[in-house]
Specification:
By secondary structure, the chain is an alpha+beta fold. It is built from 4 helices and 9 strands; from the N terminus they run H-E-H-H-E-E-E-E-E-E-E-E-H.
Length: 212
């Protein structure tokens, strides 16, 4: 029973966040961020897939309306179809209004409302562009300390950590992570922005080591 209520709570919270993202997208009101923080999108990898689903859903609604002769069933199908169409727009909106963030506090890797991983600069050794195709096994994979957070089975940025770090990602099973791979539409710009924050941290670490 506890698991059932946990699942219900997850679904309700997810739906509320999805609708909140949709309204923010429509009203063009992004979530506020810390001064000096830059946003980086990752919709490009799945944009065409989402558009295809939206188009198919939109075409399906009038077809079902004409094909189903029983009015109560047709009305139910119409409601489900319209809701599903809006839901797909909400999914796209959640990706847009929850971008990756690079700012004074560190690097924040996201995937809509399902993933939000924050890593401080003191825990990051290097950030570099490295485009990879992921093997079958899902968009989130973990092996030998490497956590891959893909989009459309690809990653484009490697983040090497200064040491093993436990991150709040279920796939890791609580095991420490040494490298994080994720995707951004403009990996070069994200890496350049990240290195601006990494350079002062590297200098501070070097001075601390020298003064020991």
């Amino acid at each position: 029973m506890k698991k059932v209520w946990g699942l219900v709570r997850f679904v309700v919270v997810y739906e509320l966040k999805l609708w909140a993202a949709l309204f923010r997208w429509i009203l063009r009101r992004p979530y506020p961020v810390e001064p000096g923080t830059r946003r980086f999108g990752y919709l490009g990898a799945v944009k065409m897939i989402l558009i295809a689903f939206i188009v198919v859903s939109a075409v399906e609604i009038p077809i079902l309306e004409l094909m189903i002769p029983w009015r109560p069933v047709a009305n139910a199908a119409l409601f489900i179809g319209v809701y599903g169409l809006i839901w797909m727009f909400g999914l796209m909106a959640s990706i847009v209004v929850h971008p990756h963030l690079v700012g004074p506090a560190g690097l924040r890797i996201r995937n809509g409302i399902t993933l939000d991983v924050a890593i401080g600069w003191e825990s990051i050794e290097s950030v570099e562009v490295r485009r990879r195709s992921m093997p079958p096994g899902g968009q989130t994979q973990f092996e030998d300390g490497v956590l891959s957070l893909g989009m459309a089975s690809q990653t484009s940025i490697d983040v090497r950590l200064t040491g093993p770090l436990v991150l709040p990602v279920r796939k890791t099973g609580g095991q420490p992570v040494t490298t994080v791979r994720f995707h951004a539409d403009d990996p070069d710009a994200l890496v350049e922005a990240a290195r601006e924050f990494l350079r002062p941290a590297t200098v501070d670490q070097a001075l601390a080591t020298k003064n020991r």
